[in-house]
Design goal:
about 525 residues, mainly alpha, about 80% helix
């Protein structure tokens, strides 16, 4: 500091530093100061004549050193922002964890409906394996075809909703839903035409499959608008209303399960569309005139910016069902179709899905907690103490990861024990049949481990998506899918079809491991990636 005091222009430089700090706050580096000095109209000749420096960049370097010294001389005790206090964090945990549970409740509601009524909005326990095959093909196809659009709506739509630009959110959603409907129609016609040429399935069978495909695809597309608006309770109630229609048709008519499902899904879609766009319209009407005149980007730009998230949506649902498709394609006996539904395998997989309710909810909490903390925590550290800033979030990440792993273990064990306890009611045919095959137990453990490891990968992914860096997640899920398919295919052919679930386990472990490694690298330079994201 003696150099600063000895300078004949020291007082003038200190005054200039005050102006710079008032303009940009704590400078990132000397280049930021140089740019600020130039914007103030200073030239090299001014740096020499007025401040005794060699040039403008020499002056900027000196001011940067003075700024660093000032920060170092300040007391190290900083007031903790209210957002990082323990009680505020507890409130956020309860709020967002319950929101996450609500996110999983529509799935839980359908499982409960099946157990109570023998059917849900699109499932039926009395389906033959042939009927279940038909419905499963339509279901899987609907999720893969619409997965990219639901992710794109979620990504771009929520961006506008966060800014309260409900008009733009509605316009963007309609664009993607329009494109989604076009792809639904193209894929449906393509499947029908290929089956007409090659006769993979009877035409009547494929028509039933396409019925479920279209209605479920519309359900996923339309529901994405309510998810964008965080209307989780509305999704739950509308799907339960659809189950009510299915129940009425099954108990009051002889139309059959296909008609019941068709009417239930149609009504659910109508309710979701009416409520979702009604809510968007009401909120859009309250916007200012300037906001109402806003228009979304051109379609080409919209597609380019959301393409990585679209790809992720397709890959995610493809990954989720890959083990089942591999297992179903194993030819055992005289199966009439290329893919054949295996009830025992599916029961184990569906049983494992219950274990996700508690762990999926933690993702909602994690992303909201990260978003709530990122700016307040920056106030605890100076611009010259980036390592401690990044270390703070690495500790946060570690705590969240441990919490997730503990929740996953408890959830898997709890789900197993809760369902096994139903063996007390062996006199009920449904329960007796459920536990009749050892394959169900084998696939439960494999799928439960696989799904919860997948959630670990999704947990890591939320950090990348929140910072607009989908690349590492896409690379990881592509590699995980290759591992899933290779191991699942080899074991299902070399041992037995249920062993395809081991591919799911191996792929999910790969996905979790790759994303953990990438997340640690991201957090090592969180200051840069956060700066680059916004």
């Amino acid at each position: 500091m003696g150099l600063f005091l000895a300078s004949p222009s020291g007082a003038e430089r200190e005054h200039l530093l005050e102006e710079v700090l008032a303009t940009i706050g704590n400078p990132v580096d000397s280049w930021a100061i140089a740019a600020t000095l130039e914007s103030m109209g200073l030239r090299d000749v001014d740096a020499v004549e007025r401040y005794g420096a060699q040039d403008l960049f020499d002056l900027a370097q000196d001011l940067y050193e003075r700024a660093r010294w000032r920060l170092a001389a300040r007391p190290s005790v900083r007031e903790r922002p209210p957002e990082v206090r323990s009680w505020r964090r507890l409130v956020r945990f309860l709020r967002f964890y319950l929101q996450g549970v609500l996110f999983a409740l529509p799935m839980a509601g359908q499982i409960a409906a099946v157990l109570a009524l023998n059917y849900s909005l699109w499932a039926y326990l009395a389906f033959s394996e042939e009927q279940a095959t038909v419905v499963a093909i339509g279901t899987i196809l609907s999720l893969i075809v619409t997965g990219g659009f639901t992710q794109a709506i979620s990504r771009r739509g929520m961006f506008y909703v966060a800014q309260k630009h409900y008009g733009l959110a509605g316009q963007v959603s309609l664009r993607f839903i329009g494109l989604g409907n076009l792809l639904i129609a193209v894929v449906g016609l393509l499947v029908y035409g290929l089956n007409l040429l090659f006769s993979f399935y009877d035409q009547q069978v494929i028509l039933v499959s396409l019925l479920y495909y279209v209605l479920l695809a519309e359900l996923w597309l339309n529901s994405s608008v309510l998810y964008m608006l965080t209307q989780r309770a509305a999704i739950l109630l509308s799907t339960l209303l659809g189950v009510g229609v299915v129940h009425l048709v099954m108990t009051r008519t002889d139309w059959g399960i296909y008609a019941a499902h068709a009417l239930g899904l149609t009504l659910t879609n109508l309710v979701i569309v009416g409520y979702g766009y009604g809510l968007l319209s009401r909120r859009a009407r309250r916007l200012s005139e300037e906001q109402k005149r806003a228009r979304p980007p051109r379609l080409s730009i919209l597609l380019y910016t959301t393409a990585p998230y679209f790809a992720y949506g397709v890959l995610y649902f493809g990954y989720l069902y890959l083990d089942r498709v591999i297992g179903w394609s194993v030819s055992e006996g005289s199966f009439p179709y290329p893919f054949w539904f295996h009830t025992s395998y599916e029961l184990g997989v569906d049983w494992a899905l219950i274990s996700l309710i508690l762990t999926i909810a933690l993702l909602e909490y994690t992303i909201n907690e990260f978003s709530a903390m990122i700016i307040p925590v920056q106030k605890l550290f100076s611009a010259f103490n980036l390592e401690d800033h990044n270390r703070y979030f690495k500790r946060f990440y570690g705590r969240q990861l441990i919490l997730l792993l503990v929740a996953a273990c408890l959830s898997i064990v709890g789900t197993y024990k809760a369902v096994v306890a139903l063996r007390l009611f062996q006199e009920v045919p449904l329960i007796r049949d459920f536990f009749s095959s050892p394959i169900t137990f084998f696939t439960f453990w494999g799928a439960a481990l696989g799904y919860n490891l997948l959630v670990v990968g999704l947990f890591n992914s939320v950090f990348f998506f929140s910072l607009s860096r989908p690349g590492p997640v896409l690379r990881a899920i592509v590699i995980a899918m290759a591992v899933n398919g290779t191991i699942g295919y080899g074991l299902s052919r070399g041992v037995a079809y249920p062993w395809s679930v081991v591919g799911l386990m191996a792929g999910s472990f790969t996905f979790a491991l790759l994303t953990i490694r990438s997340a640690m690298r991201l957090l090592d330079r969180l200051d840069y990636y956060y700066y680059a994201a916004y």
